[in-house]
Structures are given as C-alpha cells and as structure tokens.
Write a structure and sequence with these properties.
The protein has about 675 residues and is an alpha+beta fold. The protein folds into 4 domains: about 110 residues, no CATH class; about 130 residues, no CATH class; about 180 residues, Alpha Horseshoe (Serine Threonine Protein Phosphatase 5, Tetratricopeptide repeat); about 140 residues, Glutaredoxin, CATH 3.40.30.10. The protein contains 21 helices and 23 strands. InterPro entries: Redoxin, Thioredoxin-like_sf, Thioredoxin_domain, Thioredoxin_ResA/DsbE_sf, TPR-like_helical_dom_sf.
Length: about 675
C-alpha cells in the first residue's frame, strides 16, 4: 500500500468500545508519512474518537505499526467494558507509563495487544473479519481474559457481552444494542442466582425476566401443557411479586447482597417420565445466601431451576426463607414418587405425603444447619427418624429398597459426625436382618459396605496409636473379603479403590499399582475405574511428559501444553485444605522469584461443590495469581480423575521440556529443584 491513502468523504460516527457514539469525524484524510500523534492535537475531537481512528489506520496499513504512536496509557484510559460488573485489571498510575501496545496479526484477524508493566496481558482489541474495524474488545485480569464485548454483526456496536475464564460463564445477547442483556446464550445456575438477587434489589425487572422460564423455553424443552401452565403462573407478574416480598420481609431487602449459591447436584428427569419431550436437568430446592450487613445473613429459596440449552432458568420468583419457619417452594418438575406433575400417583397415601413433605422441608433447611458438628448431628438424627417412618409406611418393594438405601446412608452420615449415638448398632441390625430375610437382595452388599466404612471410622477414631496398625490390617482384609463375596456389587469398585489408596498411603507402591490396575481393567468406564487408571499414570509420571487439561475457574479451557518452554508446578488444592493454605506463602514467594525466569504455576481446585465465585474470592484474597482449573466434584472431578489424585495438596513439577521431575513435590523440593531446572 502506498504512503498516501484516502478514505470516503462521508461523515460517519466512530463507535468506541462501550458501544456509544463518539463525536462525528470527517473520514476524508490523507496520510503522508506524518505521525498519527497529530490525531490528538485537535482538542475538539474526543479521545476515544481519535483512538478509534488511529487504531483503524494501523489495521489498514500493516507497514505503519511503528508510526502509530497511540500509547497504551491512552487506550487504557479510553476504553472500559460495556457491562459495569467486570472484575478486570486496571494498572496503577505508576504502572501506566510502563504499559505497552503492540499489533498482532494472524491471516485476516488482527488487533491491538496492551501489555502491563510486568508484561502481562491487559487488553486485546480485535478485528476478526478483516474489515479494519475492531469488533471484539477483550479485557484481562492477571493475564487471563475475563470479559469481552462483541460486535457480531460488524456494525460497530457491541451486541454480545461474554464473561469467560475467571469472569464466569455468562454470555448475554443484546438484540437492540442498547447495552442491556435481552437474553442469555449461556449462564450457570450460580450466576442466575446472583443476577436474580441483583435484579430484585436494584429493581431491574427487565434483567429478572431474562432469568425466568418463559413460554418459548418450555416449548423448546417440550414440557407438557399442564406443567407449562403451572410454571408460567409461578413466574407471572414478577415486579408485583418482588414488591410484595420486600414489603413483608425483614430478611430480604433492597440492601441485601448476594453471597453464594447453595444446592445439591442437579438431577435428571428422563423424557419417558412424561413431563417433557426431552430429558430435563433440574436443581431441586436450590437456595442462595444474602448478606444484610452487620454480619447478618439470610437464606433465599430459589426453588427449581431448569436448564434450557446452555442457560439455567428460574421457575419461580426467589423468596426468603423465614427465620421462624421453612417455606418450601412449589416446584412441579421433581416431585417425590410422582410419575408426572399432572396427577398424584394413587399409591401415595395422605400419611406418606405428609412424611414426604416433612422430609422435603428438613432437606431444604440443611444449608442453615451446617455450621457445627452438633447441628449436623441433630439434622442427621432427625432425618433418620423420618426415613424410618417412610420405610415403614411404604408398600412398594422397589420404593422401600430406595428408602432403605437412604436410611443406611443416614446412619453412616450420623456416625461420621462422631455423634451418631446408636447408629452403628442400628446399621449392624439392619445388615443382620437383611442377610437373614433377603440374602439375595442388592441391599445386602449396599448396607454391608456402609457398615464396614462406619465401623472402621469409629474404630480408628477411638483407638490408641498401638492398635491402629491392627485395625488397618483388619480393614484391608475386610475389603478383600467384600470384593470376593460381592464381586458384582456396585461397591466392589469402591472397595478396590480403597485398597489401592490405602496401599499407596502406606508406601506399598507395587501393591497399590496392582489394585489400581485391576480396578481399571474391571471397570474402565466407571469413575472409580478412571480414577484408578489415572493413579497408575500418576505413580509412573517421573520422567514422562505431563498431560493435563481442564476447565478454568468459571469457564474457558486450559491445556498444560499452552505453557510449553516453561517449568510448571501443578498444585492440587482446596479452600478447606489447611496444609494447602500453609504452603501458600512460600509458593507465592517462589512464583515471584522465578516467574521471570520461566516458572509458571497451575492450580487445580478440588472443592466438591463450592461456587466458582467463592473459589475466586479465596484465590483473590490469597493472591494466587496463576491460572486455576475448577470442575466441581472434588476427587471425582475430571481434573482430579485424570491423574487419580488421592490427597491434598499434591504438587507435580515439570521441567521446560514438559517432563515430570517430581510427581509428589514439597515446598522444600521446589526450593532445591527450581534453580536447577531453570538454568
């Protein structure tokens, strides 16, 4: 392209990254080798207009990057996310002058990269369709992208708002380009709860409606007509219902602030249940916690949430759970022992329905009873008594088997608190009676295995150090006996995994690998089998290339191959893990000391069901400035299963070539090894 080029003579508005129109500028201009810095000499042209014009010049003319004197400081001060709730990195005034702007190109895709004082990514402004106009404005935090404004129809106005990686998984669509979300392409259940509380407390009822199930959603899912009517009634007149809630509630007010999402794992409703034409994914009795200031919190009942595509939707208006009583939401999708929501099954007696209602209320209160072991013990004991009544009132043998499984789980849970009372004796009595009256029932191995686990826990917790070796030996023998007696039971794989883990903890690696391998061969598709296969890989990692991939905290993918050429420490941790927290100060110090030499850290959070927002809060508070993989499920999450991680913290160190130099590193190991592999 020549030194001089012309633009059209029409006057057009230049659109900045926030989607608003800046002052009109005349597009006829000549460029004859003079610096683009002159674009900023006319005070009548606003900064962002000048930036948009100058940035376009460099995109159009690949040979002129060096002459485009748009500074990083000017860009950083001019552009901000269209949505105002983005947690992105803003350099301090002292660091602003040290930031740099460069141009990157890959085929037709080109853009501007703004780097921070330490060389970290701060911004990317991209032209993805080769028309020399920015259509994606990307924002970063600690070098990781968290948000982008997207102009998908290339008219210079953002019409999509996407939160990624540490920023979350929300993907909002703005059809009329007014800067507000009209619908969600993607949003998690936790984010729905947060957005719902925000919309209710701020009076943004337009936002609230985007989170509520609607007729189009129900048609997409193929929900039957009777259920559709009930669900649409539950979400009708949201503004009036919210105002009524605030007028009556002392626990939920316009000053309440969302804290976290609380729910059990989502359930699946098969299409053949007759409720919908497709399988449904549903959170039942979901709740969230809000902060009312002064250390006071309240529970908000969200009720049922249902997944529509990649977005979760509320099926009722959130309501506070009163301090004096539990209000159970009228969810219609997942009713206990009901074949469909259209009519109650005739086998459910009034007595049984009353018991089920009590159990549902008790389960809904569980989040508020998790504060102390005593409170949890009280909850478990209350649940056991209800389950005993339900078992006695159940006439269906299939249903009775399911309730007895829950009862056995209840006994085991009570025993785990250390305040189970006579729960172990009750569990033993259940096992003895089943072996006598129904020896062929699958309940026998189910109850037997839970009795074994509970008894081992009690014996280890009450024994002195001298007796623990004998107890553990007996435990391993009982596991082998269980596998021999019930080889086809659901718990046989768990028993093999327990054997392998115990052998590994005791340093008997050969025996551990043998059990892991046996389990992996016997059940290759089960979670336990995959964990076992991963453990075999982990044990044999030293000297081998590390393969690790997963979902970054609140979205986005990661593969360790992205860090090629760096020495990498992979840290498996959890927010509740005290040894993990104890190691953090020294790990942070090593990161700061060696990062410039090519040392990087990747965290793998193995919390079971902590919300991504709470994990991120912990990460920020503890200054963990490295990428974090997070996939709920703890030791059964995909990130943990890959290498069969069994204990926390687990740290794996690789050299620059990606080969593992230590599969079980300690902080002291790092201090010794890092200087050697970073030479």
């Amino acid at each position: 392209m020549s030194e001089q080029w012309l633009w059209s003579s029409r006057v057009r508005p230049v659109v900045d990254g926030s989607g608003s129109h800046s002052q009109n500028v005349v597009d006829r201009a000549t460029y004859s080798g003079r610096s683009t810095g002159s674009l900023f000499s006319n005070s009548s042209i606003q900064l962002r207009t000048s930036l948009a014009l100058a940035l376009m010049i460099t995109l159009m003319c690949p040979g002129r990057e060096a002459q485009a004197q748009v500074t990083a400081k000017q860009i950083l001060q001019a552009y901000s996310p269209r949505q105002k709730d983005v947690d992105y990195e803003v350099p301090t005034p002292a660091d602003l002058e040290k930031c740099q702007v460069t141009v990157e190109r890959l085929g037709k895709v080109s853009g501007y990269v703004v780097l921070g004082a330490q060389g970290q990514l701060l911004r990317r402004f991209m032209d993805t369709n080769g028309d020399n106009k920015v259509d994606q404005w990307r924002y970063y935090n600690h070098g990781i992208e968290v948000y982008r404004d997207v102009d998908s129809n290339f008219n210079e106005k953002p019409d999509q708002f996407r939160y990624v990686n540490l920023g979350g998984s929300r993907w909002g669509i703005d059809q009329n380009e007014d800067g507000k979300v009209d619908s969600w392409k993607s949003i998690s259940a936790a984010e729905v709860s947060r957005e719902a509380i925000k919309s209710m407390t701020t009076g943004d009822f337009g936002l609230l409606e985007t989170l509520l199930i609607n007729a189009a959603d129900l048609r997409t899912l193929g929900v039957n007509a009777a259920l559709q009517k009930k669900m649409l009634e539950n979400v009708s007149q949201p503004e009036a219902k919210v105002r009524q809630i605030f007028s009556k509630s002392r626990d939920f007010t316009p000053k309440s602030v969302w804290v976290r999402f609380d729910a059990l794992m989502p359930g699946s409703i098969p299409a053949d249940d007759g409720k919908a034409e497709t399988d449904l994914q549903v959170y039942e009795n979901a709740m969230c916690i809000v902060d009312n200031g002064g250390g006071k919190t309240a529970l908000i009942q969200l009720g049922e949430l249902v997944r529509v595509g990649d977005a979760w939707k509320l099926t009722q208006i959130p309501e506070p759970i009163g301090s004096d009583s539990i209000t159970v939401a009228g969810g219609v999708l997942m009713q206990p022992l009901l074949a469909s929501a259209e009519s109650a099954a005739p086998s459910v007696s009034p007595e049984m329905q009353a018991l089920l209602d009590k159990l549902q209320k008790l389960d809904a209160s569980s989040a508020s009873l998790a504060g102390t072991p005593e409170a949890m013990a009280k909850f478990n004991n209350a649940r056991i008594e209800l389950l005993l009544q339900i078992v006695n009132a159940t006439t269906s043998e299939d249903d009775k088997e399911q309730w007895m499984q829950q009862l056995a789980d209840g006994y085991a849970a009570a025993i785990q608190t250390g305040q189970g009372g006579d729960s172990l004796d009750r569990l033993k009595d259940m096992e003895t009676k089943l072996k006598k009256d129904a020896a062929a029932s699958p309940l026998v191995p189910y109850v037997t295995y839970r009795r074994m686990l509970a008894q081992y826990s009690v014996e280890m917790n009450t024994a002195n150090e001298a007796k623990r070796a004998d107890i553990q030996k007996a435990w391993l023998e009982s596991l082998e006996g269980f596998i021999t007696t019930y080889p086809n039971s659901e718990d046989a794989s768990e028993a093999m995994l327990q054997l392998a883990i115990t052998e590994e903890f005791n340093g008997r690696i050969k025996e551990a690998v043998a059990w892991y391998s046996k389990l992996a061969a016997a059940q290759p598709q089960s979670i336990a089998g995959k964990r076992a296969a991963g453990a075999v890989t982990r044990i044999q990692l030293n000297g081998q290339p590390l393969k690790l991939s997963g979902t970054l905290l609140e979205g986005g993918s990661f593969n360790v191959s992205q860090l090629k050429g760096k020495a990498v420490l992979v840290v498996y941790w959890a927010t509740w893990c005290q040894p993990c927290a104890a190691d953090l100060p020294q790990i942070r110090a090593l990161y700061e000391q060696y990062r410039a030499q090519g040392f990087e850290i990747v965290g793998v959070c193995l919390d079971v069901d902590t919300s991504p927002q709470d994990v991120n809060k912990f990460r920020v508070e503890n200054k963990m400035r490295w990428p974090q993989i997070y996939e709920r499920g703890g030791l059964e999450s995909p990130a943990a299963v890959q290498l069969g991680v069994i204990t926390l913290p687990t740290m794996i160190l690789t050299d620059r070539a990606g080969r593992v130099v230590n599969r079980g590193a300690t902080v002291q190991d790092l201090k010794t090894t890092l200087p050697q592999i970073l030479k």
